[in-house]
Specification:
The protein has helices spanning 7-26, 51-56, 63-83, 87-106, 111-132, 138-149, 152-164, 224-236, 250-261, 276-290, 327-341, 346-359, 373-392, 403-410, 417-425, 428-436, 441-450, 476-494, 508-511; strands at residues 2-6, 36-38, 46-48, 171-176, 181-186, 189-194, 206-216, 220-221, 241-244, 247-248, 267-272, 307-315, 318-322, 363-369, 397-399, 455-458, 463-466, 473-475, 498-502, 515-516. Helices cover 51% and strands 19% of the residues. It has a six-stranded mixed β-barrel, surrounded by four helices. By secondary structure, it is an alpha+beta fold.
Length: 517
């Protein structure tokens, strides 16, 4: 049965939900931020100070509070999707906007008018922030990575990787039982594969073929006779043959395995571990670099479909093809870039960017080692944050630690309620960093009052730094996304006066009287 909660009861629940979510997350902000233990039904509890991870795990049994929490999470999740950092800052801004604006609404201010004024003032704030933006250097990118990771070693590692690869999509992370974090740079085009039999690959962990044939079939290969011409061509010329297809007939697999064991042929069968459009794009990429022709109809398979590769490395999970760049490939890379810019889906855009990276500088593979799974998981989250921040900084940076927002707040004239809300809200990230660092409110107030915003307080080293020599910086894109997403979600919630939910009898005492539909 559907129920409605509205008016004062809804607004009280809204504040409770927002404060529950944001008070938990904001204690992690800054280099001295605290950790949070997260229990999970599917795996062991773990410790983290990653804002978006904490936010994603906060829920409520109360249907009203739970729904509002889920809506509020979207602000931080959106920031994380766009730039991979700034999730905690987003929630701090969101909480402040809602709490301060709610006071004005209770005093008779129209929510719609306030929403319009808040959005209008946001435009002015973003313009001022853009004026404070500075060009990013390699050192600045390193500082941003260190701050985001809250770890010098991880920050330095990420900074080095960012100098060697084009895009964060070109970085993969995996975990093992080792003790250190290791990086391997991979040149060439690579993709994940599976083999048609667990015994197919034999005892060898990997295989390298030189000057080998490649056959790409956009179907199931179910008849040995249909590929016999290509197989014979490889045997006659003593060249390896790689067949990429959607699947293989069991008899064909056993037959080719016997040829390989008898040393009569070297034929590798594999299936691309993607489906749909992604599989098709990988086929097209390999077709280009090998000069093959994709087989669409098995009746027409011939040696004319074969491509060649100078070097190909194969293991149980991946293939990697080395190739030389030519004008055709350069044009192809340009098309990949143009197509990626037209995509609205970040997940798909990352796939396009990874393909582009494999055609240019290559990819970086990071392996995380740690004594325990908890530490390994924590290292991974710090790495991911640092990677996202380092690449987000490509579009410039501003003074960090909340100082840039303090600077803008100092210039806001308190001529309406929206300006009052923003003036106080822009101070919150700085204040929270100071609180998490153990500074008392008196020192925080003194800093805000006396600061001319040319110095930054580095809480990590407990010292003031000049703006030209500071290590405390934030990526410009991170701060802008935090402001935009916080304001968008906050204003939508502020202009909401009813919620329709499914009735949960155990929670009637929390939400008060219901209106039944």
């Amino acid at each position: 049965m559907k129920k409605i909660v509205s008016g004062k009861i809804l607004r009280e629940n809204m504040l409770e939900a927002i404060n529950l979510l944001c008070d938990t997350v904001k204690q992690t902000l800054g280099p001295r931020g605290n950790n949070v233990i997260i229990d999970h039904s599917n795996f062991s509890p773990f410790i983290t100070n990653d804002g978006v991870t904490i936010a994603e795990n906060i829920e409520s049994d109360d249907p009203v509070i739970g729904s509002i929490i889920e809506i509020a999470k979207e602000a931080s999740i959106k920031t994380n999707e766009n730039v991979g950092d700034g999730t905690t800052t987003t929630l701090i801004l969101l909480q402040s906007i809602i709490n301060l604006a709610e006071k004005h609404i209770n005093n008779g201010v129209n929510p719609i008018s306030l929403k319009n004024d808040l959005n209008k003032e946001l435009e002015n704030i973003l313009k001022q922030l853009k004026m404070l933006k500075l060009k990013t250097s390699s050192q600045i990118r390193k500082n941003i990575a260190i701050i985001s990771a809250k770890d010098n070693d991880i920050g330095n590692l990420v900074s080095d990787i960012a100098e060697k690869v084009n895009d964060k999509s070109a970085i993969t992370i995996k975990e093992d039982s080792g003790k250190d974090i290791r990086v391997k740079y991979i040149k060439g085009y690579s993709c994940e594969i599976t083999h048609p039999s667990e015994y197919y690959f034999g005892e060898s962990k990997n295989l390298e073929l030189t000057d080998a044939y490649i056959l790409i079939v956009n179907n199931i290969v179910d008849d040995i006779d249909k590929i016999s011409s290509c197989l014979n061509e490889s045997i006659i010329n003593n060249k390896g043959l790689i067949i990429l297809a959607k699947d293989f007939d069991d008899y064909l697999v056993n037959y080719i395995m016997s040829l390989n064991l008898e040393k009569k042929a070297t034929c590798i069968m594999a299936k691309i571990s993607e489906y749909g459009l992604r599989e098709r794009l990988i086929q097209k990429d390999i077709e280009l670099i090998s000069n093959a022709t994709i087989v669409e109809n098995n009746e027409h398979i011939s040696v004319d479909n074969l491509g060649t590769v100078k070097n190909i490395y194969i293991d149980k999970e991946n293939i990697r093809i080395n190739f030389e760049i030519n004008d055709i490939i350069k044009n192809y890379i340009s098309n990949i870039e143009l197509n990626s810019q037209e995509l609205n889906n970040n997940f798909e855009r990352e796939f396009y960017n990874k393909r582009k990276a494999m055609f240019t500088k290559g990819i970086a593979e990071i392996t995380i080692g740690a004594p325990t799974k908890i530490e390994s998981h924590e290292k991974r989250m710090h790495l991911e944050d640092a990677i996202c921040s380092a690449f987000a900084a490509k579009n410039g940076f501003v003074l960090g630690g909340g100082v840039s927002l303090l600077n803008i707040a100092s210039k806001i004239e308190e001529t309406n309620e929206a300006k009052l809300v923003w003036k106080e809200t822009l101070m919150k990230p700085f204040e929270q960093i100071m609180i998490n660092s153990g500074l008392d409110e008196k020192k925080i107030s003194e800093y805000i009052k006396d600061n001319n915003y040319t110095k930054v307080y580095n809480v990590y080293f407990n010292s003031y730094e000049d703006e030209k020599n500071t290590n405390v910086v934030d990526a410009y894109d991170v701060i802008t996304n935090s402001l935009i997403n916080a304001c968008s979600t906050a204003t939508m919630l502020l202009t909401t006066n009813s919620i329709v939910i499914n009735e949960v009898q155990n929670n009637l005492n929390k939400t008060g009287e219901f209106t039944e539909l």
